[in-house]
Amino acid sequence: MRPMFTSFRDRIFSKVQHKACAANIISLSLGTAIGWLSPFLPLLISTDSPLDQGPVTDVQATWIASLLCIGAFGGTLLFGWSAEKFGRKASLLATAVPLICFWGCVAFGTTVEVLYVARLLAGLGAAGVFLLVPMYITEIAEDRIRGTLGSFFILFLNIGTLVSFVMGSYLSYHMTAYILFTLPIVFLVLFLQFPETPQYLIRRNRVRDAESSLKYLRGYTSTPDHLEMLRSEMDGLLVQVSGEKDSTEQNSISLADFAPPSARKALLIGLVLVSLNQLSGCFALINYTAQIFADAGSDLDPNMAAIVVGAIQIIGSYGSTIIVDRCPRKHLYIVSSFFAAIGLFAMGTHGYLKSQHVDVSAINWIPVASLSFVIFIASVGLLPLTFVILSEILPPKVRGLGGSICTAFLWMISFLVVKYFPVMVELIGLHGCMWVFSAVCLSAGLFNAIFIPETRGRSIEQIIHAMENNIKS
Fold first, then answer.
1. Fold of the CATH domain 257-472
2. 8-194 architecture in CATH?
3. Which of 87, 176, 209, 241 is the most exposed place for a label (fewest CB within 10 A)?
4. C-alpha span between 427 and 242 (Å, rounded)
5. Are 8-194 and 257-472 the same fold in CATH?
């Protein structure tokens, strides 16, 4: 009997895994929109610019890079409200619309102002994807596989980034836009058949719909064993939601819902986590990958170096999906932060020696190797676990609003980092920026060690209990 039970559990994992992959097609699409900047920014500032007005200025280039974050800041508030008002599914479907419009602007726009609008639209879509994909996956996944499925988000995001790096190197500016225009449309078609999350339906007193959703997600049939498993899981969800306020109050979430210590602490930890995620510099490095390698004096072609980094990033992200539910989250996050700090420090040291006119021709491999290592190791732990942990530590009642607040804060920090990264390079040099990012990564590891409880394999109730009682292990 036990082997049959285990086999069915494995089939459940496979079924939910396939749904998580389909849901993450929108993450793949967002990754292509984010990665578009690296191969095409050098083209936009060159004399071969596809825009009617010719090359964009350096100031315009920084706005093209950073306006995505402004769009995302506003989009976070919109999609946070939408997730509670219309549900996770409808809101996630809506994220495809601004991404379709982004590629339309890139394909047919001929002025820098249209690119500004395009990046704002990409940011709007990014806000919804960053907020809703982890939320949706958390609410459909079993506790034992929640981390693995949650880490798919960053994996698909990174695959999309690499797709843009490759296509930008080998295809034309307009052809790339025409092809990638189809990805969010594919997501719309596939995701339409997916159900709303059981947790959201129960909070709206739609228990029968929640039961149907759970049957679809798990593949339960009408056999006695399956019905018993369905009742057991439904009972657990009902108990979880019963700890919240009655349905009339659930529809109106306010700051008063953050009064419980566990909710307050989770929100503060979330704000710090997303800040460290962006101040680690990884998002800025991805946006300016090709330019960074050119400025660092690497012997490798900048676009080819960006492709190498993108491929390594995917390997790291895939590694995360394999080990995230096998290793303690804390250990994985701390170790990846520590080694990312070492890689950034090495890259900064290379840049400093070069700025002092030291002959570094024998070690010109260091920029590519260091940045590749940093992106790899950060993709294993520091980057994906930020969103996995955030979706796990926020209590269900405030997950939508709390996630919105944290995601909006993330994009505000991201805007400052991306917009002013070139300015900081001018002020303290590329090496100085790498050293600052290195210090932030060290701080991230220390923060996790001191303040964040272990969440691997724990139910939401157990995580909340750990938050309330300062249990770290």
1. Growth Hormone; Chain: A; (1.20.1250)
2. Up-down Bundle (1.20)
3. 209
4. 55
5. yes
Q: Is 56 left (phi over 0), alpha (psi -120 to 50) or beta?
A: beta
Max Cα–Cα distance, the chain, nearest Å? 76
Q: What is the mean pLDDT of residues 64-91?
A: 90
And the tokens for 196? 């709303």
The residues, ordered by sequence, that sit 6+ positions from 1 with a Cβ below 8 Å of its Cβ are none
CB contact at 8 A, 46 and 291: no
What confidence score (pLDDT) does residue 100 get? Answer: 97
Structural domain boundaries of the chain? Answer: 8-194, 257-472
From residue 256, alpha-carbon distances to 138, 252, 263, 292 in Å are: 24, 11, 10, 46
Pull the structure tokens for residue 67: 């306006």
Cβ distance 373 to 343 under 8 Å?
yes
- Read off the tokens for 123: 């940011």
Cα gap 422→62, rounded to integer Å:
8
Pairwise CA distance, residues 204 & 184, whole Å: 29
Distance between CA 196 and CA 198 in Å, rounded?
6
Q: Which residues contact 236 (CB under 8 A, 6 or more apart)?
A: 459
Joined together, the tokens standing for residue 382 give 């520091």
What are the pLDDT digits (tens) for 212-230?
888 888 877 778 887 888 7
